[in-house]
Amino acid sequence: MSNYEVNGRLYSAEPKPGQCLRTFLRDLEVFGVKKGCDAGDCGACTVWLDGKPFHSCLVPAFRGHGRKITTIEGLAKNGELHPIQKAFHDAQAFQCGYCAAGMMMTIASAAFDEAHKADLPHALKGNICRCTGYRSIVDALHGKSNIEEDVAGKACGASLPNPFTDAILTGKARYTMDIAIEGLLHLKVLRSPHAHARIKSIDKTKALAIPGVVAVYTWEDVPRRLYSTALHEDHLVDPDDTYMLDNVARFVGQRLAAVVAESEAAAEAGVRALVVDYEILPAVFDPVAAMEPGAPLLHDKSEVVTQNRNIFCTLQGEIGDVAQGFKEADAVHEMTYSTSRVQHVHLETHGSIAYKGDDGRWHVRTSSQGPFPSRAKLAHLMGVPAREIHVFTERVGGGFGGKQEMVSEDLPLFATMKLDGRPVKWEWAREEEFIGATTRHQMTTKVKIGAKKDGTLTALDVHCVSNTGAYGNHASETLAAAMGSPIAAYRCANKKGVGHVVYTNMIPGGGFRGYGASQTMYAMECAIDELARLLSIDPVEMRRKNVVRPGDNVESIWKEPGDASFGSHGIDECLDIVERELKKGNGVAKPDGEEWAEGTGVALAMLECGPPTEHRSGADMRLLADGTYHLACGSSEMGQGIATAHKQIAASIVGVRALDVDIINADTDRTPYDTGTFASTGTVVAGKAVHITAQAMRDDILDFACRHTGVVIDQCRLDNDAVVCGNKRITLTELHAAGAKVNHRFAVSRRAYLSPRTIAFNVQGVRLAVHRVTGEVRILHSVHAADIGRPINPMQCYGQIDGAVAMGFGWALIENMVHDEGHMVNPQLRNCRVPAFADTPHTDVFFAGTIDSIGPLGAKSQGECAINAVAPAVANALANATGVRFPHLPFTPDRLFSKLGKVK
Ligand code: FES
Ligand code: FES
User: Fold this and answer.
1) What is the distance between the alpha carbons of residues 367 and 392, in angstroms, rounded to a whole number?
2) Residue with the nearest Cα to atom 4 of ligand 2?
3) Which end of the chain, N or C, is more open, meaning fewer C-beta atoms within 10 Å of its C-beta?
4) What torsion do the CA atoms of 223, 225, 229, 235 make, to the nearest 10 degrees?
């Protein structure tokens, strides 16, 4: 045994052959060392060796011998945060916090000097944050504080810090995989190398002979029950087209067999030792080709119903008379636009640990946006009552829609059930996220749009084809979103649309921030600009003239009335802000040289807040004996800050500090039911549940106080930690004790349902420079205005919008999942070009001053819609700069280069 000094403590341990320092430290239960890639790209694993920062996933563990190893757990001294931790605290320079440890270990090292600070794009090139857009990290480096004081009764609307800040910044926060469990088994899967193949046989013999391999499961071993991995309460909205393990591979990366072993290495060796006999089947990758007669069929089994061969579903409709509308138009624009696949890249990969508890039930610790629908699916798959399964989250390291999917829970649960309840862990590698998880649906959208000379829209016709890949999770819902808000955003008497979702042998699509609307909003906003250009109308004016307003029917292509309604309307203010800021400028000049062309573009996005079908959330609240409150809410905290916002909502109603409200989230045993945290429902549904639950708690306290004191209720009021009844002041602790004597528990529960849905808007403005020879694009000025109602926590809302806009720039300009016959050729963070600091422009974020009459405490969707306006604003700025319309995302230099000869 060798001695290793970690954070001043000596450990006697021997690394396994070939083991890297990251996994070695985690084996020592130093869980502050995180994994985002195991390839030296993300920096989540950064530790110090003798004070110098290293990516521990790239360092052989034995190199730590004889050196001082420092991790995030060792940064604070004598109970005092390190100045960088303090700076991250004050600036709240994180959201999910998964990157924070590595980021701080880089910045806090002595090597990070003033020269590094002056050149952050280079200095932070080894640390990726997917959540923040990096602005708050810059704030931390500049010593800026973004937080406000937590004042009793004034929590709502204040920029209060995340309640888990200290745990996150000191490495004590426990994410899904941050736990040591005695006797833990490891699960790894074999993934298909073929886009379409039937498995004739899988020979397990060699795998089972590997020391440490405990079990191998194939399609012949697991329950043969169809399901969809998409997490929706109503399972009918997604096709049941998936088996846990199947004998047909429909995309490269599909899981085909699971190996369970005493160590990860043995499980991986077991996977490599499986011998599979494949019958290769013809494959189809293009959705248009997949609709043709004679195309290879993806799902030919009778259980899976498709409307027409590979077409999973078609949505269509018409209001007014589109043909007549085009006759009345003075100008018509028609073009086909397409958007690319992109991966969520939540820095914490998917993963679950399943085990049998002392209570005899099955427990699944997982990284999920929907523990409750996960439990329902697991119960269905395993054939056991849902009450026998407990699904819960610890801290979740990002989601963005990627964890609205049940993809890592079933196999560990199945294995633990088969293996006498032994705990089984399955942690995904980064490459598996790229090839085996889900992506934003690739969509191609043809828009035909006409208007009169004055800009009044007369007709709109949208034709959309969505490539759902091999499975239909979220297929119809994302298409419905694609055919919804983007078309409804504009007044037009005559609208028509048809959309198809098509199966192909590509990686499946899934839910992703913006959820289908991002894709068609992009097409619509490019088309509006083109139409404005044809009519010589200012593009902002064109939007002002045609955008929907209170009093309008908010309608897309369907005559049936929807439940979307204006609880507030801030689009005019957003357009004004962006126009003003772009005109004002930010002093950043176009680079010198006539090769650079400069252009400005604007785009808007509209969001009906929440999904159109099914959504319910509950909240439980208790007054505790010490006079503080406990809140339980089923929605998932994954970095979007919903736990902070819920505490603030509750605290403001009962008149205390947010600090006085403790919260737990997303646990099927300990929190009330929640349909899942997606589509902005964390604020508009779960937030509403918290709001009305806190009101019920306030009423309960006042009612009891009135009876207890004999003072009429009108003269009773909550005052921070007490109730004032007439001239008597009773502390909540005393009141709780009085309640206990008469068996009054001060516990309330309320449920909220989503309807009507209010409407949010966002506007993005971009000024950019594009190099006509190299195709390089530089963002010179980025402005975003958000109509989000009342920000529950302005600092968090800025952060959410920063993060969404950064993702939007990534989607527009650099992120590129390159596939060759279904094989992803660049499944690494650096090669897929997930935005680093250097790729992310600063954005000036503004809020419209709306207070919503429908959302809780005046709030509406706070963080989702911002992404939708970014790519079209970039496209419009590129067209403005070059005179060339680039219709296909992403705008990588090679794509721009081919057309840049036409630069004006
Ligand atoms: S896990 Fe080491 S750099 Fe990403
Ligand atoms: S806060 Fe940086 S990855 Fe989530």
Assistant:
1) 8
2) 96
3) N
4) -140
The pTM of the whole model exceeds 0.90? yes
Tokens of 15: 């690394």
The pocket around ligand 1, CB under 6 angstroms, is made up of 35-38, 40-45, 55, 57
Tell me, what's the pLDDT at 627?
97
Nearest to 343 by CA among 878, 898, 834: 834
What pLDDT does 903 receive? Answer: 47
575: Cα within 13 Å, side-chain hemisphere: 18
Q: Note the ligand closest to the C-alpha atom of 346.
A: 2
Instruction: Provide the token pair at 62.
Output: 């034995």
Using DSSP's 3-state secondary structure scheme, residue 308 falls into strand
Eight-state DSSP code of residue 709: H
At 642, list the tokens: 């919903």
Q: What is the average pLDDT across 603-631?
A: 91
Q: What is the DSSP string of 758-820?
A: -EEEEEEEEEEEEETTT--EEEEEEEEEEE-BS-SSHHHHHHHHHHHHHHHHIIIII----EE
What is d(CA 853, CA 750) in angstroms, rounded to the nearest whole number? 20
| Region label for 683, one of left (φ > 0), alpha (ψ between -120 and 50) or beta (otherwise) | alpha
HEC profile of 251-274 = CCCCEEEEEEECCHHHHHHHHHHC
Contact between residue 257 and residue 190 where contact means Cβ atoms under 8 Å apart = yes
Ligand 2 proximity of 228 Cβ (cutoff 6 Å): no
Residue with CA nearest ligand 1 atom 3: 40
Which amino acid is residue 126, in one-letter code? G
Residue 754 in contact with residue 681, Cβ under 8 Å? Answer: yes
- Choice between 509 and 855, residue whose per-residue pLDDT is larger: 509
| Ramachandran area for residue 284 (φ above 0: left; ψ -120 to 50: alpha; else beta) | beta
Judge whether 441 and 502 are in contact, CB under 8 Å: no
Cα-to-centroid distance, 58 and ligand 1 (Å): 8
Q: Which ligand 1 atom is nearest residue 22's CA?
A: 2
- Whether the pLDDT of residue 305 is over 60: the answer is no
**pLDDT for 241 beyond 60:** yes
- CA 528 from chain centre, in angstroms, equals 28
Q: C-alpha angle 881/607/878, rounded to 5°? A: 5
Helix/strand/coil (H/E/C) assignment for every residue in 23-43: HHHHHCCCCCCCCCCCCCCCC
Residue with the larger pLDDT of the pair 825 and 616 = 825
Ligand 2 atom closest to Cα of residue 96: 4
Q: Point out the ligand 1 atom lying closest to the alpha carbon of residue 41.
A: 3
**Hey, CA dihedral for 867, 521, 477, 756, is it positive or negative?**
positive
Supply the DSSP string of 574-643, one letter for each residue.
HHHHHHHHHHH--SPPPPSSTTEEEEEEEEEEEEESS-SS--EEEEEEEE-TTS-EEEEE-S--SSS-HH
Residues 544-580: b if buried by 16+ CB within 10 A, e if exposed? bbbbbeeeeebbbbbeeebebebbbbbbbbbbbbbbe
Task: Report the distance separating Cα 579 and Cα 574, nearest Å.
Answer: 9
**pLDDT at residue 640, as a whole number:** 86
